[in-house]
Each structure stands twice: as C-alpha cells, then as structure tokens.
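Homework-ish question, so no full write-ups if that breaks the rules, but can someone show me the predicted structure for this set?
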Amino acid sequence: MKKQLTVALGLAVLATPALASKARLQALGESTNGSFFIQDNRNIFLNAAEVNKHGDLVTFEFGSSQTTDSDTSPNAEGGILFNRNNLVYGVHLGRVTSFDATTEQFGGITGAESVYRPTNAIDLFIGGDAGFKWGANLTYAKSQDDTFTPDAGTAANTVEGESQTLDLNLGVEMGNISAYVKAGILGNSEHKSPEAAAIAAEVDRKSEYEVGASYKLSDYTIFGQANMSEYDVEAGGADANFESTFYTIGAARTERLSDRTMAFVKLSYTHLKTEGIGVDGGSVDKNEVKTTAVPLSIGLEHDATSWLIVRGSVSQNLWSNQDDDATGERTIASSTNVNAGASLKFGDLVIDGVVGTGTDGAGNITDTQSERGVLSLSNLMTRASVTYNF
Amino acid sequence: MKKIIAISTLAILASANVHASKARLLALGENLETAGSLYFSDNRNIFLNAAYVNEYKDGIYLEWGSEGQTDIGNTARPNNKADTDTAPQAEGGFLKSHNNYVYGLHIGGESYITHEARQYLRLAYAEGTPKAHQDNQIDGFFGGETGDVKWGANVTYSNTKDDTNNMSQRSASLRLGAITGKFEGFANIALMNQAKMDNITATGPTAKDDFEGKLGFELGGSYDLNAVKVFAYWRHAGWDQESNTAPVILTPGPTGTGSVYNGKAEFNTNRIRVGAGKVTALNDKANLFTKLEYVMTKRGVETDDGDADIDDYYVPLTVGLEYDALSWLTVRGSVTQYLLSQADNDYDNSLLAGQGTANPVLSPGVVANYRPGKRSFATTTNVNAGLTLKFGEFAIDGLVGTTAGNGDVVNSTSESGVLSLDNLATRVAMSYRF
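A: Not a homework solution, just the prediction itself:
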C-alpha cells in the first residue's frame, strides 16, 4: 500500500531531536560542511544564519586534534549554541579551517613535507531575527612553534613556524530565500630556519571568497554556490601561485514519504578549475585542471524505532569530464558511492555515526569510498558524534 | 501436525514485503551470473525481467559496496567491478509509480556479464592504469499495466574515457519484459559493448587491447503450473578481442592480470537453463524454496593459433528456507549441490603450446581454470544464509556466516561455519517501500 504524505516543507526534517553531525550529512551524500536542503546543525558552517535554527544545542565530533579531517582519521571538534532573548550565540572549537584544508596540498611544493598550519581554531557565532534571520561567524586560529620540523624524516631541519587564519561568514534567511557570503580575511603560514635558508617557505592566502544562495519552491530547493581563492607560495627563493575557482548550481526535491521517512533526489552541475602550482620564472608551469560533473544523489532517512534512525544514499556522476593540461581528458572513474548511517536516540541526546565503514574485511575501518558491504558490530559506527538539545 | 499450504509460487510473507537484494538471492541459493531469479520474486528481478518494476514500485534500493577501484593487490581498494562477495560494488536507485505507470533510475548497476567478458583482456586488470570496464552506468526504467499485462523496459548506458592511455569504453542495452497471469517473459539485448586501451603502461607504450562486442542477448520466461513454476533461459554473447603485446600473458580472472591470448580471438558463448522451481508456504511464517534445473554452457574460442571449445553442464538442486522469525527479523538459508555435472574442455594442441614455459600461446590461468579433458565439478555443495532486519517498511539485508574465524570476510562459497557478530552481515543492502 502506498502511503505518501506530501508536505510543503522548507528543509527536510523528521520529528526528532537534534540532527547535527558530519556523519549524518555524509550518510546522506552531502558535504560535511553543510547542506542547502537538509536541515542539520552543520549548516551553520555554510550559512551563519542557520544558527537561529540550532540554539540550545551542544555537539561533539569524536576524533583526534589535527589539521585534516578524513573518514578514517576524523578531526575532533565540538561546540555549543545558546538561545537567549531572541539571540543565538555560541562557540565551536577545533574545526579544520578552509586555510588548513587548502594548504595541506602545498607541502610538496614548498620543498618540505608539510606547511606549518594553525590549529586550535575557534568559531564564534551570533545570530538573531530582525524580521529576517541573520547570522555571523568569525573563525580564527593562530599557532607558533620555534621547533617545527617540516620534514618528518629530517629531524635536523628544525625551523620556526608561524601561522594564522581569519575568516568571516555572514548569512541571511528571508522567507524562502537564503544567502551568505564568506571571506578569507587573513591566512598565512611561514616557516624559516636561520641555519638553513633553503628550507624556508611562506604561504600567503591572497584572497578567498564564497557566495551561496538557495530558494525553496514547494518541495524543491534551487541552489547555487561559487568559491574563488588564490594563494602565493614562496619556497627556496622561488615564487609559485595557486588559484582555484569552483561553482555549482542545482536543485533538490525532498519528499516526506510518511511521518517517519524523508527521501530526496538532488541533481547539480559542478565546475572546478585549479591552476597550480606554477613557479614564476621557473621550470614548473602552472598546470590547469578543469573538472566538470553532473552528480545525482538519492537519499533516504527513516525514523525506524523510538531509539533508532537509519539513513542511506547513493550518488554518481551522470556525466563528467576532467581536462588536465598534463595528461589530457578523462571521465571521472568509479563515481558510484553508497553511504549509510544511523542515529541512536536517548531522549534529547543523539549519537550519530556512519555505518558500513567499520571494516575493510580485515577489521580495519575504511573510508566512505572503499566499503566492503559489511555490517560490522565491532566497529558499528565511524565518525561518531554526540549532540544534545537542552 | 505438519501443515503445508501450497499457494502461488510468488508467496508473500505476512510481514513487510521488501524482498530486494543480492544478499537475499545468494542466501536462497541463486547466483548473480543471472541478474535475478527465474522462479521467485525479488527486486533484483527488474534487471532480468523489466516488468518487475510493477512489483517493486515506490521503493528505494541501495547495495553497499565500494566505488569501484580495481587495483589488483590493493587490499584497500579491491576489484569490486567484479562484484564479489568480499568486494561488492556500490549501486542503488528508486522506482516510483505515477497512475498506472512506474518509472525509475538506478546508478552503478554495471553488468556482471560484461565484466566477465572483458576480463579476458588487460582492460579490466592492467595494474596502475585506468581500467576499461563498464563504469558509472545509468539504468532507466519505465513500466506499467495494460489490461492484464504488466510490462517494463530498462535502458542501460555507460560511457567513460581516459586520455592517459587512450582508454575508452561504451556500453548500452535494452531490456524488455512482460508478466501476464501465469506467464513471464523477457528479452534483453546488448546494443553496444566496446572497450579499448592503448599504451598499457605495465607492458609498454605499444601495448593495446581491444574489445568489440557482437550480438548479445538474454531470452527467457517462466510459466506457473501451480504445482511448480517451469522456466527457461538462453543467454548468448559474442565478441572479438585483440591484444597485441609481446609476449607477456599473465593469468586473467578476478585475481590476475593480463590478456588471455596475444593476438585476435573470437568468442562465442551460449548458456541455457531449463528447470522448475517452487515456493511453498509451510505456514504463515515460513516459505520453502526448491529448484531443480539443467544448466549448459558452451564457449567457443577461435584464434590464429587454434580453437578451443570449453563446455560444461550441471544439474543443481537447491533447497532453501525463508522464515519470519520475529517482527523485526527474517532469516533464510539454502543448500545447493550438483546432482550431475561435467566439464568437457577441448583445445587444439597448437593453442596449448608453450604451457609451463615463458612463452605460452594461451594464458596459463585459463588453462588452469578450464583444464583440458572431461571431469565432473568437485565439491559443489554450498550452504548460504542471510537475514533481514526489518523496521516497518525499511529493511536491511545481508549475508550471514561469511566471516572467517580470524575476522576476515570471505565469499559465499568459502565460509568457515562462523556466526560472527564482528561482521554480522556482508553484501548489505538497504531498501524502503513507500
């Protein structure tokens, strides 16, 4: 018997407590930094105005403190948001910043294994309702180390490392329209050695901007996003430059299949162009890579029992093309990805996790592209998180 | 007192009816060489008889697995384009009804049959280079009911390339099916199946492999006689392949790399299955599955160095059980064994030249897998088990017992008799009916 309750919704939501985790978004095939059409606490990192929907909430993401975040080695972070007197404000600690995520790939360019990146990031949030919902998010991280070793295999090369980053995110929601703008205000990293000038390196974020918007039309959400960044890298006396341009447009349809089940289909067009790392006046030319794709995602979330929510998704590029100056054109291979997750509910406390990544067949956890189709109970969940509504 | 109620062979359990997974098919003694079952109902039948979209409309179906990396020897990214029990491929989709029609989309459902054909070349296994198997496949479904006839159509398409070594592959097929009263029939046709790779880096810049599919089709059907359901199936595939590398011919197949033959080869294969199956409701919670069939396969290979005929037949008997144990749990299991079997592999001597030396004409792996001469199939007894965790209309299926004693996952023919809770279920699938 077909039961279908079509409700004109904004963001899809189940009648459950806090839905707020990287694991949940990942299981539904979305970015861990927020979704345009699925309601989740992580959306505060996409559009700061979302804080208005997630007040009186505390969340922890299990992992270790680091400057990278992956399925098999997630980053530890957490935060709290208060809802008081029509204002929502709070703090989030330990997130991997945009500067961290981008500069991770520059290690080999600087002639060293790693760039000195800032840790202990602090995100401050404030938002309110002034006839329209608004929000602001400031991200700051600064670190310093006089005995940083950029080459792990060469302990003798100890340098002085210094790095900081500052980002601002401003967002609004007015009726069915949401929009935000992000700016990288500050981002630099330097490591230098008085004894060995050859291993000095400096990375400077010249600019980073991102804009995004969405519009809810009945069961559909139409969205668009664009991001541009430019970095200068100086290493061993040579200057290099890295540029990235990304945009996406798409639409998602969410449907409440029953009072316990939400499903969605999302289709989008994405384009990413990177130019880097070219060395000015040197022998390394800038290598341009353009990647275009049309990904399709289908997802499902079901309130299975009073204590359990299950979810899953499948995504694949319907079409794709990557054009690399160095190696020519290709289709992006093997893009079919199925993810699954679960939430264990204890009243207003929820434990989220990705399911199916608990083993590679030999007991080691795996990432969300390399699952073995195994439901493991020894590693029942990965990317585990805890969220509590108060 | 034993009560056996014989009803229609499409027996439906009293609880949530979300029968939809490869794991369920395997647990009930089917194999995945044919996309679905010829005598009982499962969502996977939509890939065999497209008319089954009418039976499984309004559902979302996901099969857990990996994205599809295929580096042999890379245990982190196993070759799951072969879609094995230990390295299944990820896929999923939905079916939705609209008035009297059903439409749907499925992604990642590459064909086991196509992969099997291309595996005789390095297209699928060349270490360190992009692979030329089916990839990023899209299946579109459309079906409906007209009078007493349920009909369906499924179009598949896959097209990928990589300029790094001039790799390109394309495939497309059309599957048509109908269900009317006691009769079911289908016709599935391969419209296009091409793959090539130049500059296979593992063996030099001049190395190349070429695969060109010729006529390929599946025809089949079944008729419900009430007492049993009789069925018949015929699959034909033909292709030309060419490999030009001197002389390294490694072992092809799921664990090897390399091409089966250095030169041009023509393949023609035919598989025929005829048999009868029955689903018997033992009570309101248990169904008994029984099947007896005759399976014959003929494979002809023609090369400039000689020909080979690799033929076999077998008569498997399958007995399976599916039991609605609890409101949230269904368990199932089966035993299968060949009552009769024979492999008869005939090679021209010229094709077998050089075996055991550094310059074999034909891949030693093929000769080892299909040994010359006649023999029966050994150790064919296979027991599989599975379960379904049910949450209303949401179900999680999986194979059970496919964990070795040391915690490794094994395939459904190599179990160690272990009920493991570490790896409770393998080949997991999720489905939801709305």
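Now go work out the reasoning yourself. Hint: The longest helix of chain B spans residues 112-118.
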